[in-house]
Design goal:
Blueprint lengths: L3 E6 L6 H13 L5 E8 L9 H9 L10 E4 H9 L3 H16 L4 E5 L11 H12 L3 E6 L5 H17 L4 E9 L4 H11 L5 E6 L9 H8 L2 E4 L10 E4 L4 H4 L7 E6 L3 H11 L7 E7 L6 H8 L7 E3 L4 H9 L10 H14 L2 H8 L9 H14 L2 E5 L5 H13 L2 E6 L2 H11 L9 E3 L7 H12 L6 H8 L2 H11 L4 E4 L5 H12 L9 E7 L4 E5 L9 H17 L5 E5 L10 H16 L4 E6 L1 H5 L1 H7 L11 E3 L3 H15 L2 E8 L5 E3 L6 H15 L3
Parallel strand pairs: 1-4, 1-5, 2-3, 2-4, 5-6, 6-7, 9-10, 10-11, 11-12, 13-14, 13-16, 14-15, 16-23, 18-21, 19-20, 19-21
Antiparallel strand pairs: 8-12, 17-18, 17-22
Helix pairs in contact: 1-13, 4-5, 15-27, 16-27, 18-19, 20-21, 22-23
Keywords: Acyltransferase, Cytoplasm, Transferase
GO molecular function, one term: phosphate acetyltransferase activity
Pathway: Metabolic intermediate biosynthesis; acetyl-CoA biosynthesis; acetyl-CoA from acetate: step 2/2
């Protein structure tokens, strides 16, 4: 079975990084464990690392050492090639590749960059490596500086060369083409290449082509005087501040880099003020030339500004510095999350991801990894967008999570709260959230307030709730949000960042109520361990469930597990395994297990069973040798809240696992609770899960 793909380019500066990052994101959503390998890398300074290896390994959290990810530096290849040691080169590359293959389900192999000395031999080496590793190839060429015929001819020759050497080409990609020519080039590729060869055309992206201030600092050996927090700003343009301020301000453009001698206090202060002015475009940074530094009163003034972009001091005259900045070739690096995210979005928009994945992934990986789980969740949410209401609309974490959610475009969002307060919060947090894309509702000022209050009165009047009481309750964001879900004005609700669990779910229990046939509302956590995702229930709702409630929790948890792509193998946990234990607690678990078998005979379930027997195959063989669950459980049902809550927190803290939840199950419509200590990522993940739950109603 195919376990890897080779990315090869026909020349330097092809934008290969975009393809590597996009492919890695795609593969991690399809395959349990993905490795990364570059047979040959550029030489790097002592104490430094190859930028692209460092970026891929750190951003995607690939569990590899840096040294494992490459075989040779460029100078080593040239030296061995001059000594006619081609066989030695290939032998070592194969050995290093096989060492990675043994540990991973799939490997992304990235070819050379065609930069510097030795570029003339790289084409043959790339073909030779791909052939000897026996893996298919994706070919990339840049459209910069080429006519249509040149670009198509270049890609076709590359395809022919690899094919002649027995290397299967899966796809060819034309990168960095003018946007207006995308469809024309796509048509030409499909006309000139065999039908089975996939093709992709990616337009030139100006943002990805811009260097960051950090890259400029490194190239110029500059010193950061102010604004280091914004060092990853992109320099969209640059200009020299050599004229009077009133004239220079008219030349500022979006994300301009201001270059000026260090003694031009007027230009420095004018640029910094323009950056925070609503009347001028944002500026990426200020470069001070000549080694000149602002005087102390100027420094003091800068320190007092509300926001300071990077101010960099460099040696050298303005003319030479400007030329050096213009010659910088921007790269994508680990800290620049914006460029990485943009690369992924560009890849997914312009590459036939599903068709490519189908050809690449020819095997079924065991289990599901956290990265795959989260990737699949996002894809499912995107496939059928739902409307989620967030009652705690003024909470900082909720607003930050909302920004992430809107960037992915996975859900529709309504925030509850005062619009002015939310706008002020967004300004304070420097969150650029387009309020035209979300709904903001202040419950008491809502046009639906009277209708919602009347509905609540009708639903709860048998509990002695009058209309005035219903209005008081409806002013509460938890009641208003729950009523939106009940009335179909939202598909689900996520709350609890600033409220207790009881406050969050009480309205849902009062009028959304449970599904038909479900006797108890319960919860699960998705525990994202290093190499798999398991389900823990119930760790948040029911303190001391009866046998009947435990059985209901197990069945609901199995349904939730299956809905999220995890095959349910249920372990009913207790302090003993099988029939050996006695006592009220173990008997309750034993009875619950029997009830599940009666109600859902198709489910794989074992109980009572100890945790070690549920997860360790060696222990399972000695304690429950004939069990189809022991040693491979995926759903863990705890006997009580005390055990479940402490266990999930212990596993989370000790193994650094990501715990997503609690995810409520059993309600007629999805409402989910957050911990008051939740992070932005917790909120993001819970909203995505809630949206997926809503797809089932």
């Amino acid at each position: 079975m195919n376990k890897a793909v080779y990315i090869a380019t026909t020349e330097a500066k092809s934008g290969k990084s975009i393809i590597s990052i996009g492919l890695m994101q795609m593969l991690l959503g399809k395959t349990a464990k993905v490795g990364y390998f570059r047979p040959i890398i550029d030489d790097y300074k002592s104490g430094k690392k190859d930028n692209h290896i460092d970026t891929i390994l750190s951003y995607f959290d690939i569990q590899m050492n840096y040294e494992e990810a490459f075989a040779f530096t460029r100078s080593e290849i040239i030296h061995k090639n001059n000594q006619n040691k081609d066989d030695e080169i290939i032998t070592k590359i194969i050995e290093k590749y096989k060492a990675i293959e043994d540990r991973f389900d799939f490997i992304l192999v990235e070819g050379t960059d065609f930069s510097g000395e030795g570029a003339i031999i790289e084409w043959d080496i790339n073909v030779l490596v791909a052939k000897n590793l026996g893996i298919p190839t994706i070919l990339i060429s840049t459209g910069v500086g080429k006519s249509l015929d040149d670009l198509i001819g270049n890609l076709y020759m590359a395809y022919d060369s690899f094919k002649d050497k027995g290397v299967e080409v899966l796809m060819v990609i034309a990168n960095k083409v003018q946007p207006e020519n995308v469809q024309l080039i796509q048509n030409e590729l499909q006309k000139n290449l065999p039908e089975k060869i996939l093709s992709g055309v990616i337009p030139l992206n100006k943002s990805l082509a811009n260097p960051t201030v950090k890259e400029i600092v490194e190239e110029l050996n500059g010193k950061v005087l102010f604004g280091e927090a914004y060092i990853n700003n992109e320099a969209g343009a640059f200009s020299v501040g050599a004229m009077q301020l009133r004239n220079y301000l008219t030349h500022l453009k979006e994300n301009s880099l201001v270059i000026t001698p260090g003694d031009r206090a007027d230009i420095i202060l004018g640029a910094l003020q323009a950056n925070i002015s609503a009347n001028y475009p944002p500026i990426s940074g200020v470069i001070l030339t000549g080694g000149l530094l602002p005087e102390e009163p100027i420094n003091k003034l800068i320190e007092g500004l509300s926001e300071v972009i990077p101010v960099i001091s460099v040696q050298g005259g303005t003319y030479s510095i400007t030329n050096r900045i213009g010659a910088i070739q921007p790269k994508i690096y680990a800290e620049n999350v914006n460029k990485i995210t943009a690369s992924i979005q560009v890849f997914e928009k312009h590459i036939p991801v599903d068709a490519l994945a189908e050809r690449l992934i020819t095997f079924k990986a065991n289990g599901i990894t956290p990265r795959m789980f989260q990737y699949n969740m996002l894809k499912r949410a995107l496939s059928n967008k739902k409307h989620i209401v967030l009652p705690e609309g003024t909470d900082d974490r909720v607003l930050l999570a909302t920004k992430q959610l809107m960037d992915t475009d996975a859900v529709h969002i309504t925030l509850l709260g005062d619009k002015t307060e939310i706008e002020n919060k967004l300004t304070q947090l420097d969150i650029s959230l387009d309020l035209h894309k979300i709904n903001i509702i202040n419950p008491e000022e809502s046009e639906r307030f009277e209708d919602y209050s009347q509905t609540l009165y009708e639903l709860r009047k048998h509990k002695n709730v009058n209309l005035a009481m219903a209005k008081d309750l409806m002013a509460d964001v938890s009641y208003y949000g729950s009523m939106m879900v009940y009335k179909g004005d939202a598909d689900g609700m996520v709350s609890g960042a600033a409220h207790t669990t009881q406050h969050t779910i009480r309205p849902a229990l009062q009028f959304i109520k449970t599904k038909p046939g479900v006797s108890v509302v319960s919860s699960v956590f998705f525990m994202c361990l290093e190499d798999r995702v398991t389900v823990y229930g119930d760790c948040a709702i029911n303190p001391n469930p009866t046998a009947e409630q435990l059985a209901a929790i197990a069945i609901s948890s199995a349904e939730t597990s299956l809905a999220f792509g995890i095959e349910p193998k249920i372990a009913m946990l207790s302090y003993s395994s099988g029939s050996s234990g006695v006592g009220e607690d173990v008997d309750r678990v034993r009875k619950a297990t029997e009830l599940v078998k009666e109600m859902s005979p198709n489910l794989k379930i074992e109980g009572p069973i100890q945790y070690d027997a549920a997860v360790d195959m060696n222990v399972a063989k000695s304690k429950l040798p004939n069990s189809e669950v022991a040693g491979q459980a995926t759903v863990f049902i705890f006997p009580d809240l005390n055990t479940g809550n402490n266990t999930y927190k212990a596993v989370q803290r000790e193994t650094k696992a990501l715990a997503i939840g609690p995810v409520l199950q059993g309600l007629n419509k999805p409402v989910n609770d957050l911990s008051r200590g939740c992070t932005v990522d917790d909120i993001y993940n819970t909203v995505i899960i809630t949206a997926i739950q809503a797809q089932g109603f």
